[in-house]
Amino acid sequence: MSSIAQKKGFGATIWDFMTTVDHKKIAILYLMSGGFFFLVGGIEAMLIRIQLVKAGNDFLSAGTFNEVITMHGTTMIFLASMPILLAFMNAVMPLQIGARDVAFPFLNSLGFWLFFFGGIFLNLSWFMGGAPDAGWTNYASLALASEGHGIDFYTLGLTISGFGTLIAGINFLVTIINMRAPGMTYMRMPLFTWTTFVASALILLAFPPLTVGLFFMVFDRLFGASFFAVEMGGNTIIWEHLFWIFGHPEVYILILPAFGIFSEIFAIFSRKRLFGYTALVFATILIGFYGFMVWAHHMFTVGLGPTANAVFALATMIIAVPTGIKIFNWLLTIWGGNISFSVPMIYAVAFIPTFVAGGVTGVMQAIAPLDYQLHDSYFIVAHFHYVIVGGVVLAILAGTHLYWPKMFGTMLSEKLGKWTFWFFFLGFHLTFFIQHFLGLMGMPRRVYTFGADQGWDLFNAISSSGAILMATGVIILLVNVVMTIVKNERIGNDPWGDGRTLEWAIPSPPPFYNFAQTPLVRGLDTYWIEKMDGNKKGMIFAEPLGDIHMPNGSIIPFVISLGMFIASFGALYFMDGKPWALAVLIGGLTLMFASMLVRSLKDDLGFHITKAELLEDAKGGNTDGH
Amino acid sequence: MAHDTHVHVRSQAEFEYVKKKRAEEMRGHLATFAIMIFLTLIAFTMVAAGFSVYLIVPIILLLAGIQVVLQLYYFMHMSGKGHGMIAFFMFSGMFVAFITVLTFVTIIWW
Ligand code: HEM
Ligand SMILES: [Cu+2]
After folding, report:
1. pLDDT tens by residue, B46-72
2. Do B108 and A548 make contact, defined as CB atoms within 8 angstroms?
3. By CB count within 10 A, which of A167, A199, B13, B69 is most buried?
4. Residue of A nearest to B84 (CA)
């Protein structure tokens, strides 16, 4: 591609990314910032494991430890895992359905910048008087009692980034419903698109309860309301409900796209059509539904009463059924396939037993009487790391290798990739397997230290040593990324050689309009069908070559988000009676609404790429921007 | 893409068909409107007649539910073609909201 030939200045590149509305560039922004927060969260994890490496350690004080675990959980869930998955959704889903962009490119950019500023706001707490310390679940009794501004950074930061996620979810829903290429019926959509669809629906339905809860919390803490303050007639349990009505669907928002990535990988590297495609689709939808009926399994020990506990226990066990269906479908996809053990496939194969282990402990916890023993112990910590790291993070690492070529046009090293895998995978099991037993031996979660006479020394030391292996794996991945960028060996459309879906039929990275001509879809695994028919072009076209209408870039999403960011500082210091706080609040909101007004009043009709330019591109001309 | 705009002239048969459709739709509108007025009257009468609150409240809620459905299907055209996805999402949302309210009522506030 000649895109590299056309060198832009550094400033121009930054400006380009700040104003872009192209889903592929927004994907890169999500990947970079999500990756950054992943490293931050990883450093916090290492601090936790250093503190717990031996009995009575004083590496971190009790208060700092609480801040570190809170920020670790919050960062990993909201600022690392979700954004990186959104990066893949942005990069791949529009290509898979044969679209030129998402339905609302402007909103796509707005969603990213809101997430970004929310994340920065949350992390600034470290430098501005202390981070939140009530756990990532931020239970109201703890949160309302917490001194300083940590919790306010949490509530305001998550409100901002939550808006961003909600916007992204709605955008993907509309895109998938309305922008599929001709012939791309719902039952021909690749599984990653399907899981994006269901995860977006979950975002749509699950984020509002969180927003409501956060709003109540903001008002309780900053403006003297008492929704959760028991002494004022409030109810602290309502926060728990609101949080988990969001929280359980949230774990499925994370795991479904991960399932999608693995489904793609199993099909590509087994060189076989997915076994039981229909069953996989319906299992995904079913999981989405059940996801909303089980939240109280996080609250068995609150004292909901035996009836409520029984109902939610049963519902929770039922949700394991569609998950099991998926596992069998993947196994049968591999069965008899012509398997190639490239890095993504290694991750996918390793994912199956790991995730099954996490699912089994999940079902154990779903047994309410047993959960009275397990709750708030290290067993829970082991469970959710088996599903989140063994499911979501393995999918993120696999997806990074799988989609790197499509996003950047270069190939990550297979050799270093395998090293990363082994360090990370072995380190992971070393760290977390033993935590099941720590839990059974009675070690509570979220304790900053333990006594030498409690018999937990050895297992904690083993757990911490595993963490070092995982960190080594991540560092090797970083080396891999840098080396790949420096080498810059360009690759073609279908670098894995066995791509099945539309994204592999176009150049890597694709031209900014994706498809010069909208493709016509003849079945599931669109590109594979054309390959098998010997179609050298990789697709059939649904329209003649003609002008393409494209949206203009815009700085407004950035400014709107910046306005909210500034306003949040005003809201945060308002309680302290700082005279400038109100001015900052109003100033930020003014900036936000003024930029919205500009957007509403000024027509932006976009521009056209002419047929002549497209023909020029087809001969190998400029494919990267304008 | 397509720059040439097609000007479509309706044939007589098409015209008749559309007219008949519209008339049918109009009849639907009027009928539902009458039903809705009637339901509202029932609600007011019940209150005016001074029945027990435990009877009035559930019945009014039920009538309100019926009104919402009528409104959506006859006035907001959800019965029309291509509204499947919209209906699906609306009912999913209502379902989630319903479960939430149900749990709150039964296990927090009861
Ligand atoms: C087979 C499916 C699953 C079942 C039956 C299940 C069940 C449970 C139960 C009952 C708890 C509460 C335990 C307690 O606190 O006492 C729990 C906690 C948790 N689960 Fe799962 N789970 C499943 C899958 C998942 C998945 C796929 C994820 C994420 C990708 C996940 C993430 C979590 C998290 C983060 C927590 C702990 C939350 C906290 O207290 O901080 N689970 N799980
Ligand atoms: Cu859960």
Report:
1. 999 888 888 898 899 999 989 988 888
2. no
3. A199
4. A177
